[in-house]
Amino acid sequence: MTADRPYFLTTPIYYVNDLPHLGHAYTTVACDVLARFMRLDGRRVKFLTGTDEHGQKVERSAQARGQTPQQFADEISGAFRDMGRLLNISNDDYIRTTEERHVRGVQALWQELERRGEIYLGRFAGWYSVRDEAFYDESELVDGPNGSRLAPTGADVEWLEEENYFFRLSAWQDRLLAWYEAHPEAIAPRSRRNEVISFVKGGLKDLSVSRTSFSWGIPVPGNPQHVIYVWLDALINYITALGYPDTDSGEYPVFWPAELHMVGKDILRFHTVYWHAFLMAAGLEPPRRVFAHGWWTVEGQKMSKSLGNFIPPQELVDEYGLDPVRYFMLRELPFGSDGDFSHRAVVSRLNGDLANDFGNLAQRVLAMINRNCGAAVPEPGAFAEADEKLLGEARALLGRVRPLIAEQAFHLALETIWRVVADANRYVDEQAPWALRRTDPARMGIVLYTLAEVLRHLGILTQPFVPDAAADLLDQLAVPTDARSFAALPEKLPPGRKLPAPHGIFPRFVEAEAAAQS
Ligand code: MSP
């Protein structure tokens, strides 16, 4: 990997027919960690998120609320922007599919596909699910209650017959397979890549890419009775945000192909089959990588409207605090797998990894320095073997974590960092600096200096995951804001630098009832 290649990273654009919940927060936080990591690592980053605002589902939801689709979309798109602020998301751009820059780009791509003979007018007859905004083959449907037929996702389907434009997807099967073959890292995790390949090997039918039975969408150029199929419209956001159709100047030549599209497993097919075929058909390069993460259940149950168990991100942040939520999401599961979001699991991570392990380490060290070293960075002397060993582990961290982040193995990156937290805690117990205070104050200084240096490394490396807590720790070590990038890791804390009064960075979570009784 070239270290200085610009890094363009995207979340899916979120449908405006639902309010933000844990699932959206998850995708967005994972991307934010990557964006922050790459910036700290010196890469030029563009981190894009936004909202997907067209389609029949949005038109129907707006109608049900007595609003115009645009009013409705404005409101919910605002709620997704608020989610970004709440979760401390560092996106560089926010695209809405109702924006002029997007509409222009989508129509230009359509015309390009038409010019190349990739789109033709035909007649569609088949099953459509408004909830999934997807077409299904008869053979894919499953039996529902009372003799009804359902999409494989459990969504209702309706029979649709209309004049539609079609994209010649069937013609792309072999070229798609050849591309996947030539780019083994382009779809992750591996099991998902295999699923995509076998889907494409199973044969591709031409894809209906316009609709006439509703109007909330981007009109087909030259035939405005048709609106462009919402997935074609939505996927193109990744390049309209870079200024497409201008591919020669501006951001497009800098940032395309994207380094990574992060998506949930449910929308992988759209992002690796349809999207790649659209791009190749228009003579554009596919993204370098698409990663499909897993899904959360909540206390063992699927999140659903009928169960009413969607967790709004605000509720999580109010209950546990922002950084603990960010940490939990990325530490609890192997990224790519499904998992369960339970109160017990969050509290156990929060009180274990954060409060007891990392928080307590920082608190102990900073308090001892404050009390015993005149509230200033202590004087190091000749390091003993144990000091060098611990410092060596801290200094080796970036080299170990970087390849894990490059593969989106967040849980392993955190596990690796926390191994040094554990080493440091063991070192504190073994060296017992509180006892050295009387017996060997110079040695105490060296031990506390070693620990402060390790904390500086930990503070810098945890910034992408827990930005506020890491900043708080680095403030307490008086590390200047321009010395917090990964390039500054080899710098050392200057002995004698005054330190502010210390305070905890990760408070313990106390259950409400227990707190009320005490
Ligand atoms: N609008 C489309 C994406 C178009 S991108 C060109 C869409 N939007 S969505 O709002 O329905 O979903 C966005 C993301 O939220 C998906 O990546 C999806 O996987 C994720 N999640 C929704 N529920 C989830 C969980 N329960 N758990 C984890 N992620 C989940 O699809």
Topology summary:
Blueprint: E1 7-10, E2 14-15, H1 22-40, E3 45-52, H2 56-64, H3 69-86, E4 93-96, H4 100-115, E5 119-129, E6 134-136, E7 142-143, E8 149-150, E9 158-167, H5 173-182, E10 187-188, H6 190-201, E11 207-208, E12 210-211, E13 219-220, E14 223-228, H7 230-235, H8 237-240, H9 252-255, E15 260-264, H10 268-281, E16 290-293, E17 296-298, E18 301-302, H11 313-320, H12 322-332, E19 339-341, H13 343-372, H14 385-406, H15 410-431, H16 433-439, H17 441-462, H18 467-476, H19 512-517
Parallel strand pairs: 1-3, 1-15, 2-3, 3-4, 10-16, 15-16, 17-19
Antiparallel strand pairs: 5-6, 5-9, 7-8, 9-11, 12-14, 13-14, 17-18
Helix pairs in contact: 2-3, 5-6, 11-12, 12-13, 13-15, 13-17, 14-15, 14-17, 15-17, 16-17, 17-18
The structure holds 5'-O-[(L-methionyl)-sulphamoyl]adenosine.
